Amino acid sequence: MFISSLLLGSLMIGSGDNVVINEFSYDSTSTDVREFVELYNPTAAAIDISGWELFARGTTTSNKIFAIPASTSIAAGGFYVLGSALVPNVDQVVGVSNIWQNSQECITLKDAKDGNIVDTLVYEGNRGFPAAFIGLQEGECIWGNGFSDDASHTSWSRVRDGHDTDNNGLDFMRRPATPGKTNNLPTSSYVDLFDRRTVESALPDMGASFVVPHVIDPTKVSTSNPNAITASPQGKNAAVSWDPTGSGNFAMVLRDAGSNVTVEAYVYFDANLEASNAREVWSLGVQGTCGSFYNFPDPSGAFGDHSNGLTGVALTFEVTDSHAVLYLVDHNDGGRIAGTKHKPKTDRVVLGKINLKPTDTGWHRLRLEVQGNTASAYFGGTYGSTTTGQKLGGKLLMPSAGDVYIGYRETVTDNTKTRPFTFDHLSVFPGASGDVSSFGTVKSTTKGTPRVGTNSAPVLGNASFQVTGGGLVPGPNPSLFFLGVPAATPLNLAMFGGQTGSFLYIALTPLVMLVAVSDANGDAALPLPLPNDKALKGFALSVQILDTDSALTTALKFGNSDGLTFKIGG
To answer: Domain 190-430: which topology?
Structure first.
């Protein structure tokens, strides 16, 4: 059982039989000198694109046609980049600045033989849909606004090279720009407690439209932390995603989470109502993306906003002068019908909501998972559990591959009083999720209250899975981790000289006992890497900690945690 994990298998990469528009950037800081369109050949053979034409049809500027020179081909799995001379890996310089229209445009690739459309898309559909664009998008157009800040250059990128479902709204993600290079992200899981990172450092495994999430000490005010709050249940450092200069910000985890995914974290909720006409909104989403500015998603529908562009499924927390509500929303391919000139085929669907009160202000566990066409979300409860906390859920209209993303935006008069998306112990796992549940009671030591938990979800291939202990006698001090199955009748340790009310909840047979040493903060961890062995799916294991405490006056000098059972998902 305790063998090294295999990495999660690579997700199937979308493929096609012809060249696609794979990535593009059309609006950037100041003079727009880094605009480009990247073509990609997803086939197993080179494709001759001599004489092909890339059309740019706008609404406020003249149409442009970029002809591809003779003797030009794209190798199998290769790229071809049209853009300004300042674009990395550019193959064909087609202008200096403002090459493509900033606000809305249609980009169409046609072949040389018959002028047939090879690939086509429309971006910024929220601004309206001229008659000339009809039929020139695949599925839904890309809805949100895309802007590339020079400090964090981003683009619209296919979720994987060549991934083409014939729905622009589902196929493109907002990501760090990679002209002439792959869009593909690592398929491995992501777990970060942030405690080993320096406060105010940027998170290396995340990207952003403006400001990458930064590490904070939540109990202290800093550049990235506008006001002091309590530490999370995990303790120590946390992270914040926002742009301290104001307005909106969008961030993404640089992992390919696929279509089935679980994301979990401790998140701080400020449920105190805002001043008159003020609003704060954040989203934690999967299977999708967002426009660069995270324009307000308006899940309540009270404000008439329609330009947000979220896709996939998201938990969105909205605080106004009248309500504080957590919503679970299916944004599917991004269109928003109400109040728009372009009528998308589908609208977002609110799958459920939880009304919060000012007394709910504080840290809460959030878990969002998608399996097939079903989304489930949990507010509160035990980290890793699918049986505790308030649950929301529902069926998705069009589940798809996509990213794990975060958005935050506010309209307030004093940024020092905001509470942007603040999170700790962030875990992202592709594939099905396991379950964690607690049982039994705790008996304290003279130094604290022992508790047992896990550092992440128990899923096949999770090489970093650990059983964790907290509230232990500060180290170096040994703690006994008992692993097995729950006892039919708990063993009363008082019968053997232990404290009154102290019990061992794990059966004596079969039983594995391992020792871990707590650190100066009373924390300990027992690594249990989970192999990528499908035979283990559904396997359940229980664990409990007996914490030694020499200061106890009893003969058997232990305090005990409650019991915890985790079931392996796959």
So the answer is: Jelly Rolls (2.60.120)
